[in-house]
Amino acid sequence: MSLIPVTILTGFLGSGKTTLLKRVLHESHGMKIAVIENEFGEENIDTDILKTESKEQILQMSNGCICCTIREDLREALQLLAAKRRKGLVDFERIVIETTGLADPGPVAQTFFMDEEIAETYLIDSIITLVDAKHAGQQLDTRQEARRQVGFADQIFLSKTDLVSDAEKDALIHRLKHMNPRAPIRAVHFGDVPLKDVLDLRGFNLNATLNIDPDFLKEDEHDHGHVHDENCGHDHDHGHVHDENCGHEHGHDHEHGEHCNHPHHHHHDDDVKSFVYRADKAFDPAKLEDFLGAIVNIYGPRMLRYKGVLAMKGTDRKVIFQGVHQLMGSDLGPEWAADERRQSKMVFIGIDLPQDILRQGLDQCVVEA
């Protein structure tokens, strides 16, 4: 039986999660979706819907969706839903989990890695973070939870962009890209986003391509001088990213050319940062495994998301790896094409990660020609 895809929806208070979930629960979209909502959150989908005399947690909506309010932990709610589905008591094809506005999505994601029974039933599709363009600056400045939510994202939806100027929006996009270069950013209006753009994003799919905009670090040359030398000349990456993103966010087309017009970009020194590592030589598998194991053991709690497409000694296939906090997985991907440059590419997103230690350690894991 195929695994049930799960979308984790996160975002700070007032970012639009409730609006989006109301649409999922009421719109006639023909999909059988179970929504798990943490009722201890600061905002509920719709308190009138959820108030029920029954002790039963699971409510059937008129459009075929199911709403499940969590009164205990997520693992138990997922097991309950799976058991009821096996018995034919409820019918759903996928799950959307809303985290509370102050939640760190990390432990939610880890539930699907750590618990064998859950892992045999469900598969994370993606983590989507909603960002309120009007209040994001202050939230990102003052609340680490907001920064962590951005760091975890596979997709970022920017709400309330009509309440800010183009310059403010571009500055925010630029800041978000520094924190998380692997998540496409898309402006949405009050939850009015097609569900096909919310579901089946395959952000956790190990074989998904790793698309990182090579220009995202261009302006911090004093911090990452050696990154830019590596990034220059990779126009094929650049085009690929823009093909994906242009349809989503018209700001992307001109955003790069405008960086230098916004000196206030420099003022943010967020603790959630990302960096890209590239290597043109193959990795020694044993050295890399030892090094990554040690790094994850020490810095795991501060490592939000990390992912790579790697060239390994001893195989003609790409090795794809990714992780959340201390949990890391890898898989063999497709073969390198004959005319393809065998370059390893990794992105690390975390809280005050020691870039120099990571770079030096990874440099020592490559096979000397």
TrEMBL record:
Q: Where in this chain does the entry annotate a coiled-coil region?
A: none
Which is one Gene Ontology cellular component term of this protein?
Answer: cytoplasm
What are this entry's molecular-function GO terms?
A: hydrolase activity; nucleotide binding
**Bias regions of kind Basic and acidic residues — which residues?**
243-261
- State if Transmembrane is listed as a keyword: no
Q: Which reaction does it catalyse?
A: GTP + H2O = GDP + phosphate + H(+)
Q: Which UniProt keywords apply?
A: Chaperone, Hydrolase, Nucleotide-binding
The protein's role, per its UniProt record: Zinc chaperone that directly transfers zinc cofactor to target proteins, thereby activating them. Zinc is transferred from the CXCC motif in the GTPase domain to the zinc binding site in target proteins in a process requiring GTP hydrolysis.
Which PANTHER family does the protein's record reference?
COBW DOMAIN-CONTAINING PROTEIN, COBW-RELATED
Q: Which family does it belong to?
A: Belongs to the SIMIBI class G3E GTPase family. ZNG1 subfamily.
Name-wise, this protein is GTP-binding protein
Give the species this sequence originates from. Answer: Comamonas piscis
What is this organism's lineage? Bacteria, Pseudomonadati, Pseudomonadota, Betaproteobacteria, Burkholderiales
